[in-house]
Amino acid sequence: MAIEFWFGQLFNLKFPQRICIAIEVGIQNATLAIAIAAGLLNNPDMAVPDAVYSLFAYATAILAIFYDRRTAQRIYQEEIS
């Protein structure tokens, strides 16, 4: 998620947009990994690490949302004043 956040900063996106991109791409990668391992490769054993990564991605996304809501409000207040 940090890489996606950095790419948003590289393209001069505002803070809430960078957070949105980071969370969206992180969760899509987790879901895609499970779909490939379980569906295309037809190997449930390979889906276990993907499921662990998926749980980590969702937990990180939830923490990022709580942290970034506060930070985004502070940054927005600074931008309008």
Return the domain count.
1
* Helix-strand topology string: HHH
* Whole-number mean pLDDT: 84
Q: Any idea what the shape is?
A: elongated
Q: Report strand %.
A: under 5%
Q: Portion of residues in helices? A: over 70%
Cα gyration radius (Å): 16 Å
Q: Write down how many β-strands occur, each being a DSSP E stretch of 2 or more residues.
A: 0
* Secondary-structure content class: mainly alpha
Low-confidence stretches: none
Distance between the termini: 30 Å
State the oligomer. Answer: single chain
Number of helical elements: 3
Task: Give a short account of the largest sheet.
Answer: none
Polypeptide structure, described:
There is one protein chain. By secondary structure, this protein is mainly α. The chain has one domain. 89% of the residues lie in helices and 0% in strands. α1 packs across α2 and α2 runs antiparallel to α3. The two termini are 30 Å apart.
List its traits.
elongated, about 90% helix, 3 helices, about 80 residues, mainly alpha
Write the layout of secondary structure elements.
Layout: H1 2-10, H2 15-40, H3 44-80
Helix pairs in contact: 1-2, 2-3
Quick take:
With 81 residues, this protein is mainly alpha-helical.
